[in-house]
Amino acid sequence: MRRLQMQIVCPAAPQFRVAAGERAGFRTRIFRFSMLSALSVAACVPEDVAVEVVDENVQAVDFSSAADIVGISFMTYNAPRAYELAAQFRGAGKTVFFGGYHPSLLPEEAAAHADAVCIGEAEANLPAMIADYRAGRLKKFYRAVSEELRPRRADPRLLRGNSYMPAAVVQATRGCPNHCEFCSVAAFAGYRFQKRAVQDVVEEVRAAGRRRVLFIDDSLAADPDYFKALLAALVPLRVHWYAQISFAVTRDPAMLACMQRSGCRGVFIGFESIVQESLQETGKGFNRAAEYRRGIEELHRRGIAVIAAFVLGYDHDDPAIFDRTLHFLRDARADALQLTVLTPFPGTPLYRRLEREHRIRDRDWTHYDLGHVTFTPAAMSSAELIAGHNQLLARFYSWPAIARRLWGGLRYLGAGELSLLALVGWGYRLKIRRDGYLPAG
Q1: What residues contact residue 436 under an 8 Å CB cut-off, 6+ apart?
Q2: What is d(CA 343, CA 365) in angstroms, rounded to the nearest whole number?
Q3: Residue 175: how many other CB atoms lie within 10 Å
Q4: Which tens digits make up the pLDDT trace of 188-202?
Q5: Which strand ranges, in their side-by-side order, compose the sheet holding 168-170?
């Protein structure tokens, strides 16, 4: 009897998609640091099912695959591509499962293009989907919820490892308890926050055998007691780790000291805005814009690099926000920047509010990539918003600005972190050139 086969496909945007016969270029490798979500799905597949992972960012999709089941996981901006892939696979006689953020938040839309839709976590649903497929009783929707976070160990051999940044990628927690208006992560997780046993996390880090560890948690420090226990357990491992954390940790000197001792070398923080009214507007008033500079200084004092995430386009943002944000980033010495346009992802409170206000003007899902304006801004035109975003990003990542940051970073960062920041700057320069707006001097 032939072994059942499943292929997990991760769609890619056109500018990153690898066609047949092509190879993934090194120029985008700095942004390809994790496929843990796909590997976690693969780990849920029963052991008697053969599984492979295809990431369109690094390899072409083979529609002649022998797979019986094709699982496609995707976010909103890749929904049209996912529907295209599903149509071709179903035309070839494959059964298609959908999962991920977009199908979970818009299951009825997704169901029109697939045989079954996983709503929420794969761990709670995928084994049942495969069992029902085998029994010939596949349902359209599966929406079970896991009571605890105990993922099976992901198998990195399923990926083309040399196509990604070298680091052990680990998840200790899942979800976020906050209710930020724009956040699809919390909406997907049902505003729950789950934690793995600290010892399980530590064993996974130890088994990976790498000096660098990247936690891909959405809010690793959301539970301070859990976070402190995890940090204490990391100390003996002598790793350098990086994670996304809340700005709130910078108010706790003891927590910062624990982070330093445990090997923290870089954090990604969602500052979101320098305007307190915008933070209140989006449900992130627990951030205090007046404290941002001090918080960054506290992290730098402990040798921790800061990647600052900001969003443009809140109702309190007028055309002055671009220069104000750039001046803040320079004065506070942020080491890197992720800058996005406010995007009303379907299923979020922001989407529902803007829809009630008749301000959603673009439902082309390919534009929901954090770089397009899909709604009517309140205090500027759409053209002003996108132009301001592009110019701010180009100025932050100009060669002189990158050089100044690296020179300043010599005072508090190690060679490894400076090298990573140089690669990030170079990667953004290439992205800016590709997207058609060159850096200003």
Answers
A1: none
A2: 11
A3: 21
A4: 877 888 899 999 999
A5: 168-170, 212-215, 240-245, 264-272, 305-312, 336-341
> CA Rg, the chain, in Å?
22
Q: Report which of 55, 105, 44 is spatially closest to residue 79, judged by C-alpha positions.
A: 105
Where do we find the tokens 């693969």? 42
Beta bridge partner(s), residue 116? 97
Structure tokens that stand for 139 in this block:
């349902």
- Tell me if 44 sits within 8 A of 127, measured CB to CB: yes
DSSP symbols for 304-356? -EEEEEEEE--TT--TTHHHHHHHHHHHHT-SEEEEEE----TTSHHHHHHHH
Give Cα separations from 370 to 232, 288, 310, 373, 406 (angstroms). Answer: 36, 24, 11, 8, 27
Q: Is 31 helix (H, G, I), strand (E, B) or coil?
A: helix
The rounded distance, in Å, linking the Cα atoms of 361 and 375 is: 5
Tokens for 192, please give them.
């729950």
Structure tokens at 48: 């008697």
The CA distance from 43 to 158, in Å, is: 10
Q: What is the pLDDT of residues 261-298, one digit of tens each?
A: 999 999 999 999 999 999 999 999 999 999 999 999 99
Query: By three-state DSSP, how is residue 375 classified?
Result: strand
The tens digit of pLDDT for each residue in 129-156 reads 999 999 999 999 999 887 766 666 656 6
* Amino acid, single-letter form, for residue 259: M
| Distances 77 to 184, 282, 370, 377 between C-alpha atoms, Å | 13, 22, 9, 20
Distance CA 371, CA 382 (A): 12
- What global pTM score does this model have? 0.92
How many whole angstroms separate alpha carbon 266 and alpha carbon 252?
17
Q: Which two tokens stand for residue 405?
A: 């940051």
Q: Which domains does the chain have, with CATH numbers?
A: 5-142 (3.40.50.280), 214-221+239-435 (3.30.750.200)
Q: Which structure tokens are listed for 78?
A: 């890749």
pLDDT tier for residue 17 given thresholds of 50, 70 and 90: confident
> Is beta strand 173-175 parallel, antiparallel or unpaired with respect to 193-195?
antiparallel
Whole-angstrom distance, CA of residue 72 vs CA of residue 117: 10
